[in-house]
Amino acid sequence: MKAAIYCRLSEEDRNKQFETDDSGSIQNQKSMLVQYATEQGWEVYNIYSDDDYAGADRRRPQFNKLLKDAEQKKFDIVLCKTQSRFTRELELVEKYIHGLFPIWGIRFVSIVDNADTANKGNKKSRQINGLVNEWYLEDMSDNIRSVLKNRRENGFHIGAFALYGYMKDPHQKGHLIIDDEAAAVVREVFTLFAQGYGKTAIARMLNDRGIPNPTEYKRLHGLRYKNPKTRDSTLWKYFAISDMLENEIYIGNMVQGKYGSISYKTKQNKPRPQSMWYVVEGTHEPIIDRELWNKVQALRMQRAKPFSTGTIGLFARKARCAYCGYTLRSSKVKGRYYLKCPNRHVAQDACPGAFISVAKLEQAVLGELGQLLQDYLDKDELEQNIECCSNLQAQKKRLTDDLETYRNKVAEYAEGIRAVYMDKVRGVLSENDYIAMTADFSKERDRLGRVIADDERQLDEINERIEAGGNRRELIEQYTRLDHLTREMVDTLIGHVTVGRRKKGEKTVPVEIFWNF
Fold it and tell me: Quick one: which of 22, 381, 458, 351 has its CA closest to 340?
């Protein structure tokens, strides 16, 4: 029997000399598990170790490698110190320990809490462990949120990075102090805008003088910064100037909570309405005085021109510059709408600058779409050449498999409730313990019921889309007779469009369309 050992430490360890070293806790886990495997006569296939990762983090590299190797049946046993070291999520306990591992022929063993899938008698204890670990995650998340909320409401800075122009006070946690070098640039930006310079013009002036943008400045000074995924990240851009001019932190007000996490189970964030932001006035020394701030805000309001809901948004977030890859910005000149690259004017030789009118781009898309679809229709090979629903069958299979798993789990919870009842009847459980355990099982069963209903709805939608495939020819023919596009059509048909710049002596702008089919 081959055993795969999995170790995990969630808290930041302080007894490591180097970041690449294993912590003392990880070393102890490895030693304990290797010794246990040897005593059982198991061959250690591999040791998978995630240091400084939370039990709810599904992106753990070694955890995912373990699951991949398990699916390929490279070993027979997964061995952990406790079940919570493998995961603290009840959903993953059910999915892997009780679901996929038995299918793959994998036995799960944790030695401290005696979890062993080879022993059917302790399945309820594993489920209870999963519930307890789930409660732990939720309680810990609530406690952290409460502490952070309190600190935000009291004006303490809790972010990982200080805003450009400031630095973290080394003598007072949660307090910002002015970074004189960067603050001088901030004051210049506000002053230039107040003097009538536009945001792109200000960005170009800073770039021409070789002033690094906020990210590059922090990198050069050894400060913590978020590494952007965009190219040419050393340049100032329109949006960097725009964000700076509206940030109240520069007048001494602490503004936090613009984004909030979706759930304690994920690190994904979403924007929060401004009414939910935490704004505390006068928490630190301002860089911009009130008079200059008010003048800049008045100018911003004067220059703000709300776009209409018509053609201007037709290719929003879909059109990109063929030279630098940035999303094209919209503009209006004499009643006509245009798309242009924001990098064209931010620095000398930064980008040739894509440029095209929305009307011309729409006609280019309609022309290629009509020709493309007509070719398919003429050849009568729609079913072979257009696979609009290429992944629907895969989605259907995934949902069907998930539904089967969830329904089995609901049945298991019902069985668990009956088993707990029998334990109460036999006097093994007290009345209070029975009520508490059945409430937990019922709660999880109801949650799975809602998940099943949602998956069934998605499955019905997918079946409808698959059935609509029989009418694909009629649907496609509708697109060959279009005079205008709608935003819905663009979202459905087009992944993105790259636009170049018309060369002298040529009549057309180079356009490349990446279709969704």
Answer: 351
Place of tokens 């594993």: 126
78 band by pLDDT with thresholds 50, 70 and 90:
very high
Q: How far apart are CA 322 and CA 497, in angstroms?
A: 9
If one compares 32 and 450, the residue with the highest pLDDT of the two is 32
What are the CB-based long-range contacts (under 8 Å, 24+) for 128-135?
Answer: 128/437, 128/440, 129/83, 129/84, 129/93, 130/83, 130/89, 130/90, 130/93, 130/94, 131/90, 131/440, 131/444, 133/55, 133/83, 133/84, 133/87, 133/88, 133/89, 133/90, 133/93, 134/88, 134/89, 134/90
**Cβ count within 10 A of residue 191:** 15
Contact 284, 166 (CB under 8 A): yes
Residue type, 366: L
**Mean pLDDT value across residues 219-227:** 73
Joined tokens for residue 196:
């009538």
Name the DSSP class of 105.
Answer: T
Q: Tell me the three state secondary structure of residue 147.
A: helix
Is the distance from CB of 487 to CB of 314 less than 8 angstroms? yes
Tell whether the model's pLDDT for residue 401 goes beyond 60.
Answer: yes
Give pLDDT, residue 64. 92
Per-residue model confidence as pLDDT tens digits over 299-334: 888 765 444 433 447 887 788 888 877 788 888 888
Q: Each residue of 383-420: b (16+ CB within 10 Å) or e? A: eeebebbeebeebbeebeebbebbeebbebbeebbeeb
What is the rounded CA–CA span in Å between residue 69 and residue 109? 17
Average pLDDT over residues 379-384: 50
Instruction: Give the residue among 138, 200, 149 at the shortest CA–CA distance from 440.
Output: 138
From residue 413, how far is each of 13, 114, 232, 423, 439 by CA, in Å? 38, 21, 55, 15, 11
- Give the pTM: 0.45
Backbone dihedral region for residue 334 (phi beyond 0: left; psi -120 to 50: alpha; all else: beta): left
- φ, ψ of residue 122 in degrees (nearest 5): -105, 20
